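Hey, resending since the last one bounced:
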Amino acid sequence: MELHHLKAFLVIARTGNLTQAAKELFASQPTVSAQLKALEDELGIVLFDRSHRGMKLTQAGKLLRDKAADVCERVCELNALAASLSRETPAVCRVGLNTTAGVLRIPRILATLQETEPRLRLELRQGLSSGILDDINQDKLDAGFFFGTCTLPGLAYKTLAQIDLAIVGPAAFRQKLADVPVTELFLEPWVLPPEDCVFFAKTLQLLGPNNASSLRGVTADDEATMLHLVREKVGLALLPVFMVEDEDEVVILRRTSLQVDLGVAWRRIGEKSAHLTALLSAVTEVFV
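The structure tokens again:
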């Protein structure tokens, strides 16, 4: 039994006129007539007495009218409840973080979203810039922050800020290395990022690519681990200035003119969803 057949039946019963019912239903008269016939055929009864004066409910039609109205009302209630539940169900946006939530201004982004898109819940996942970009490309993340440049053709991105870089070392090394030329700093042990990391490329800018083989030390694939190893006097490192501003055991040995871009990326394919649009709007507003 089709719901629109019941609705046609109820409108015809109320108006007593097939033409008027068709107007109210925004349908043609033959269409409404066919809907009524289909309902009568399915039920196996005649619902109306037809005459030149209009259409009157039969006794059976009168008995079924209230039941049909009750069914339609229950369907409306069901739709209203479903809409209410849909509004209450939070949308989820998976976001990759390549550094600390404070640096990425996540608390401010959340506060902005609470005003503009309160149903949106962020699912934050920590990772490396390269891994975050790959995960967005594979639809494992909806968006994510990254250092450097984005070269994946399937992704769109926006540069948010430029991060200053500095050579950092244990506070205990400050006096020993205070007046040492930068080139001689590379004779010390270093804590290095992977070779495919933007920070490694920036390190080579200071050292010179032909001298890369002279670097010695250990490799760590995230900035937090690098900072911890510097703190433990394992070696020097090239890191964002913000990472050591509140440190007591790690100090800036040399400020540099080098910077790395901080950006946010998302999939270019298809139209952005409403919740992704809201997220990107909040990120942009916070970083302006």
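The chain has three domains: 3-87, 91-161+263-287, 162-259.

Sorry for the duplicate.
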